[in-house]
Amino acid sequence: MLSRVVAVVALVTALSGCNAPSPTTGAASGQVTIRSCAGPGWPKTPCQVQQAQGTKLTFQSHGRSPSTTSTDRKGRYFINLAPGTYAVTVGFASPGQVTISSGKTLIADYQLTVIAG
Predict the structure, then answer these.
(1) What is the band of 74 on the pLDDT scale with cuts at 50, 70, 90?
(2) Judging by beta carbons within 10 Å of its beta carbon (0-12, 13-18, 19+), is residue 105 exposed, middle or buried?
(3) CA atoms of 32 and 8, how far apart (whole Å)
(4) Looking at the predicted structure, is the pLDDT value of residue 4 above 50?
(5) 71: number of Cβ within 10 Å
(6) pLDDT in tens, 83-95
(7) Does the global pTM surpass 0.85?
(8) Is there a contact between 95 and 116 (Cβ–Cβ < 8 Å)?
(9) Which of 16-20, 27-31, 94-98 has the highest mean pLDDT?
(10) Angstrom distance (rounded) from CA 84 to CA 3
(11) Residue 117 lies inside a defined structural domain of this protein
(12) Residue 73 in 3-state DSSP?
């Protein structure tokens, strides 16, 4: 059975968090979930959502080496980053960009939608 990602939704809200970075760095934190839509009853049956344990996130800023992290067993991640704009890759999807500011933690949650057929 072949699966493919059909949508990535990113909810991004900037705020300071408990794991606050130092004043000269910033950070990104959030949760990754997978929304699976499949089965004999689909599309009439609801899709299942679960935490994306062990998903790799890559943050790439122009002129810098990529920074990577992985989600924990609950799909959560945290990474310290230099201030700047980063292209984000979540698993094998590229949902867009985030901007990291000094002394702040950016909350960026991602949901990957997979339709198996």
Answers:
(1) very high
(2) buried
(3) 10
(4) no
(5) 23
(6) 999 999 999 899 8
(7) no
(8) no
(9) 27-31
(10) 34
(11) no
(12) coil
Question: Is residue 18 included in any domain, yes or no?
Answer: yes
Domain that residue 100 falls in: 3-112
CA distance 47 to 62: 37
Number of domains in the chain: 1
Token look-up 């968090």 returns 17
Phi first, then psi, for residue 63 (nearest 5°) are 80, 5
Contact (CB, 8 A) for 36 and 50: yes
Q: Give the residue from 106, 88, 104 showing the smallest Cα distance to 96.
A: 88
CATH number for the domain harbouring residue 25: 2.60.40.10
Compute the mean pLDDT over every residue in the chain, rounded to the nearest whole number: 82
List beta partners, residue 51.
33
Write the CB contacts of 60 (distance below 8 Å, at least 6 apart in sequence): 66, 67, 86, 87, 88, 89
What are the tokens at 50? 């679960």
Q: What are the structure tokens assigned to 95, written together?
A: 């949902």
54 is a domain residue = yes
Residue 66 forms part of a structural domain = yes
